[in-house]
Amino acid sequence: MRRLRTVTLGLALLAPALLPAFVGVGNGAAVACAAEAAGEAHAALVVDTGSQTTTYCVALGAGTVSGLRLIQLASAQYGLSYHLGFGGQAVCQLQGVGPSGGDCFGDYPDYWGYWHGADGGWSWAGSGAASASVSDGDVEGWSWGPGDTGSTHPSPPDLGFDDVCDTPKPSASPPARPSPSAVPSPGAGSTAQSGSQASPDAAGPTPAGGVTSRSPVPKQPKQSPAADRTPTDPPSTGAIVRAVATSGGATPSGGPPMGAFAAAAAVAVLTAGGARTLRKRRKGESA
Amino acid sequence: MTLHPAAWMAWATCAGVVAFTTTDPFYLGVLVAIAWFVYATCRVPGPTARSFRVFAIGGLMAMAIRTALVFLGTVDASNVAFAALEGARLATLLIVFGTFNAVTDPFGVVRLAPRRFHEPALAAALALSIAPRTIATAGRVREAQQLRGIRTARWRGLPSLAVPVLESGMEEAVTLAESMDARGHGRGRRTRYRPAHWTPAGVAVVVAASAAAGVFLAAAWVGLGGLHPSTSPLTWPEATPWLIGVLLLLALPGIFGAFRDPVA
Amino acid sequence: MNEVLRFEGVTFRYPESEIAALDDICLAIDEGTFVLAVGPTGAGKSTFLRAANGLVPHFTGGSFKGRVTVGGRDTMRYPPRKLADVVAFVPQDPASSFVLDRVEDELAYGMENLGVDPAHMRRRVEEMLDLLDIEPLRGRSVRAISGGERQRVAIAAAMAAGPRILVLDEPTSQLDPQGAEHVVAALQRLVHDQGMTVLLAEHRLERVAGSVDLAVGFHEGRAQLGSTADVIRNLAMGPPVARLGRLAGWDPVPLTVREARRMGGALPPRAHDRTEGPGDTMVEIRGLTAAHGDVPAVRDVDLQVGAGEIVALMGRNGAGKTTLLRTIVGVHEPRRGSVRIMGRVPHPGVDAALCPQEPDAILFADTVLDEVRTTLRARGRDEATAGLVLDALGIAPLAACHPRDLSAGQRLLVATAAVAAGGAPVLLLDEPTRGLDPASKDRLVRFLRGHAAHGGVGIFATHDVELAAAVATRVVMLAGGEVIADGDPGAVLGDSLVFAPQMTRAFGSGWLTPEQVAGALA
């Protein structure tokens, strides 16, 4: 009976320490998926900021992920920068475009529209990215612009899974709308053809980063608003860039924010003050 | 320094709320420093003072466990960072609680409880007092074993340490409960010898802490201040200076405590 | 006269125990009496005291037969908290009963629970502070005061609640002789001036035998209430003067020094028998200075102890005895000076072994036998010798018991066995007789003598003057961390007012034990 009491007490003491860890498992599982093996499931992600479209062939690991998770994976694999809002349930900002607060409609009327690829074209998503499922071979699209419905919001350039994820055909650049200002000359480095990543020749995009600078091209006005389901709705303009994989996990950009020094100063003052008081008190207590 | 126990409870609750709203390591770091500062200036000498260390270690353990769980799945810098930040928040909550435990007399707090909650409040106070007592006992027990010539490596010795420590802790808690009962605890109408008073300092602490909690809650609602730094991609978390200033409101009890006369 | 406590046919067994801790107890105690509970360790005294305030059986469980009525209330019908206005209890370890932080809050705690009005509470607190001479401590934390002060605070807190009967379990165990006298005097004043009833259990009978009105003698669960002299004679226990009376065949047996002097007459001072001097030096202490926290506890101590010596370290509470022992055994770093055991820096447990004041910290095995075996195993000695160690201390019958089920005194003996089993040549004991009845003390004495006879060294710190008188070959007196006396027990103890054993007080310098006096009177 004595032994039982001891064991119970021991458990009672350990439980509070372990409990928080296990509460975290649920969250952890959401973030830590099964190991992603190369060459398995992939999905295509198309991000159209209005002036430029970037495509990502994202490895999915095993099985199905949510639309949000796809973005996170693209970030890990290609360095896509993103920012979520509404408690982490909605996409506010991609590639630096969009509001940085928690309200994804901060730049209303513009916002990120969410599309599912359908037969090389796009269909407006009926529910949020958090609840959508993306599996091997799926195409997901995000486009920045105004318009509250699929018929009014610009869609990304029509791209199929093979356009994004397979070795591209030579003239792979699918309907790249000629823009009023010509596409900058090859070799300038700011825009690239969707050439093969392996090609060493000039027109190659900056190999290091996946995202190249925005080309100074004015937004193409909305195309025919008539049919909202036409797959060939030419949406925005600008070149289409294929993202180049970065080493897993982009390195932190820039340095610590200014506020960090304020934080460090506060910590230093507090620690010093506390230590001084402790020393004074200890002398007093033992006197 | 004597603040009304309810003032301390308010402080701890508000500090906890603030910790809950953010995973930003800069804010959490400042909050931990504040908790330590308040502990150093306001702790009540005695076994409860040890609580801080107990909860600090517990917090670090929880953080380590939380981070280690990532290794069950995909391991990349952003996942690890995410888990570490969650763990840091947890650790901060525990550390704030450790400060609360060390600056209040647990039985003083129990006395505030309405009569119906006396028994559970007492049980909670006793359970809380077990941890610091346990640490004290552990020290004595290790030494006692040393005296017999039983030499055990720090960590290997843990099991043989555990039994006497837990048994002693248990016995002590039971003896205390016995004597409290024998002295009439929970008997009926009680009076107070030195009733806890609300001092201006106590009121100020409650106001400041509530303000800090309110600001952080509002910031979380509105989504500003970078309360949840992005781990994917891994970037430097934000640190808004004026929010740090708001955090420092929680250091108020420590400032009062630093200037009090040391108790004889 | 009113009865304040009555036991009717009380038989009690602890849970899962076959032995009756209390066996058919029948007695009644009148109001305003000072009663002593006496008996061998484990005989039921503590259980009896706890039955008086309801802790038995409400907190212990077990099977309870019969009835206990305290202040007119049946303890079965009233839980301890409902009896708090009638009976107050001070446990053996007062620190374990402290609830609040400040001394004066602790004094008021009981009254708060009873709903006493604040003005009255304040008056009582002041009275208690004065009565037990603890006024300077009023704002201090209860954890920051010495053992003796804690004991007085606990007693004051119990008294403050104004009960009709005050029950104390070994209230002077941690006090030096001076402190003990003080407490007993305060209790007597309560009985005589305020008509309170006081019931206490005590082993150090020399401290209380002369002050109490009645005694309850315990033996294997049975109890007998009678005059102190009768009870003590029947139990064959008692303070040294009583032992002397038995040896010399006196009737009635003296209970106080005064009575013994009257009966024995005058005796010439006794010369120290020149036994052989100590053997080779085993412990060498030079210029030792050690601190306890920030305060120097041992100042510039020089000491040499040779093989075969049994040294008693004595002194007031806080004189530095414990710190000195810990430095000798090697767990405490000295600030200056050195300690060498047989020329080496001491390794704890190997060269010297120390049994600390709190034996509970040592015990972790399931049985007494295992405790001893663990030490033997750790020190690479033959586990079969465990039985010998237990025999030497007379606790072989307890071999299969769980150490925490034993009484406090028994636990102390088990801890001593566990420590001694390591075979260290220098054996250090800190307050080894707390809670030990005379029979167990005798066994300890024999054990120490055996250890010394085999070339070992024994050093023990104690308040127990009679123990020092009985077994020490040398007495070292500490005050403020310094050695103020060092020499033959007859001389050192004879010289001291406070630390003189009863035989010395009665018959003069040099007389230490009843055996010596009886021999001289014959």
Care to describe what's here?
The complex is a heterotrimer of chains A (287), B (264) and C (522). Chain A is of the alpha+beta class and 287 residues long. Chain A folds into 3 domains: 2-30 and 258-286; 40-166 and 219-242, Ferric Hydroxamate Uptake Protein, Chain A, domain 1; 176-218, no CATH class. Helices cover 26% and strands 18% of the residues of chain A. Chain A contains 4 helices and 10 strands. Chain A has helices at residues 2-31, 67-78, 161-165, 258-286; strands spanning 41-48, 53-61, 65-66, 82-85, 90-94, 111-118, 121-124, 133-134, 139-145, 240-242. In chain A, a hairpin with a 4-residue loop joins strand 4 (82-85) and strand 5 (90-94). Chain A is elongated. Chain B is mostly helical and 264 residues long. Chain B has 2 domains: 5-108 and 198-258, no CATH class; 116-182. In chain B, helix 1 (5-21) packs antiparallel against helix 4, helix 3 (51-68) runs antiparallel to helix 4 (77-103) and helix 6 (118-147) crosses helix 7 (158-182). The longest helix of chain B has 30 residues, at 118-147. Chain B starts with a helix and ends in a 6-residue tail after the last helix. The mean pLDDT of chain B is 83. Chain C contains 19 helices and 19 strands. Chain C starts with a strand and ends with a helix. The mean pLDDT of chain C is 90. The chains are: A alpha+beta (287), B mainly alpha (264), C alpha/beta (522). The interface between A and B is large, with 66 and 66 residues.
What would a concise description of this structure say?
The complex is a heterotrimer of chains A (287), B (264) and C (522). Chain A has 287 residues and is an alpha+beta fold.
